[in-house]
């Protein structure tokens, strides 16, 4: 068996086209333009790339965008003051503070200062609490993107054995909660593995759907999965450079070996990453509609 490839670029493009049409309708029918503010503190190269991509997505879709590039020396007080101003700005419906922040700034303090109604990353405790109990909320972008990859690829989650490797607040915990919900595109039996799990392979071999966000290159090997598994690889690891100087990127799954046993698998890059950005745009539109009383 050789796996079919779950193409995140193609699925994300489908979603962006749906969102573009919705934005046109919001503008023409209600005069409503969704607005997103992005804040980057410091000069982390990866963060700069992510922010540029998100700004490009906003412009392509017709979302009003404000970008704030702040020096690494910015104090926590100064950053909180900017967040507060954006909380009060009616043109801005979503606020994204790019993580990681410099060490002298407490990430949780800044993230919790964002108005939950503008928390389009879905990291505020209010939104995470609503996710936990199944109430409508902004879903964290990467976990929601994973769910959409499964749904739009025709992969049934109801009753499926889902194993999540990784328990971060950004991916592992929220994706487990999303897929546990008694809802369409979820309703799975979910196991979460982590660094204290005694025998990870015991669990991963049982998975119908395996979601890997371990943060270690090629941590999941072919002998750790069963035939016919669906694999969602969230990892992106730089393991060197090509002769032309480009980064060599691999996931948390040994793609070449595991794809020979899997039914379907995401590539790295081109799998989960594009979906994360698409879900950010979706949340921004949802925030604009909510602010206008359209939901």
What do you see in this structure?
With 295 residues, this protein is α/β, with parallel strands linked by helices. The protein has two domains: 31-117, Rossmann fold; 141-273, Rossmann fold. It is 40% helix and 17% strand. It contains ten helices and eleven strands. The strands form three sheets. The chain has a six-stranded parallel sheet. The chain has a three-stranded parallel sheet with strand order 3-2-4, sandwiched between helices. Helix 2 links the parallel strand 2 and strand 3. The longest helix is centred in the N-terminal third of the chain and has 23 residues, at 8-30. It is globular. The mean pLDDT is 95.
- Give the total of domains: 2
Regions with pLDDT < 50 over 5+ consecutive residues?
Answer: none
Q: Which strand order do you get reading across the main beta sheet? A: 1-11-8-7-5-6
Main sheet: strands, sense, barrel: 6 strands, parallel
Class by alpha and beta content: alpha/beta
| Amino- and carboxy-terminal Cα gap | 45 Å
Total beta-strand segments: 11
Q: Which bin fits the share of residues in helices?
A: 40-55%
Task: Report the mean per-residue pLDDT as an integer.
Answer: 95
CATH homolog superfamily of the largest domain: NAD(P)-binding Rossmann-like Domain
CATH class of the largest domain: Alpha Beta
Radius of gyration: 19 Å
